Amino acid sequence: MINEFKEFIMRGNVMDMAVGIIIGAAFTAIVTSMVGDLIMPVIGVLTAGIDFADMFIALDGMEYASLDAAKEAGAAVVSYGVFINALINFLIVAFAVFMLVKGVNSMKRKAEENPEEAPAPPPADVQLLTEIRDLLKK
Question: Which residue positions in the chain have pLDDT lower than 50?
Fold first, then answer.
């Protein structure tokens, strides 16, 4: 059973998946920072300073200064601004992954179009010595 487990773990698919998960986690941190620190402030400026995170509807009919104030008061809220932020984040992550996959596929195509050249044949004297060696073995 232990040997079967070792074989399972050492398969290429499992190792590739593990590497993919690790790289994906690191990539997620980069994209999250890009969205929160670079893109959302620009969107805020373009939308005249509107902060999507504070957009909500209080279902109890009361007016609250912020989403946090509504939550502290125990009001049921529909936080559609948080959803908008998540949607923008998803679209940016999806586009970044698309560009990454597109780049990898492009590199694969180039590698397939230009396969490694076959090694040059050995010089004539080496070929002759190899043939003599093989004849002597018989």
Answer: none
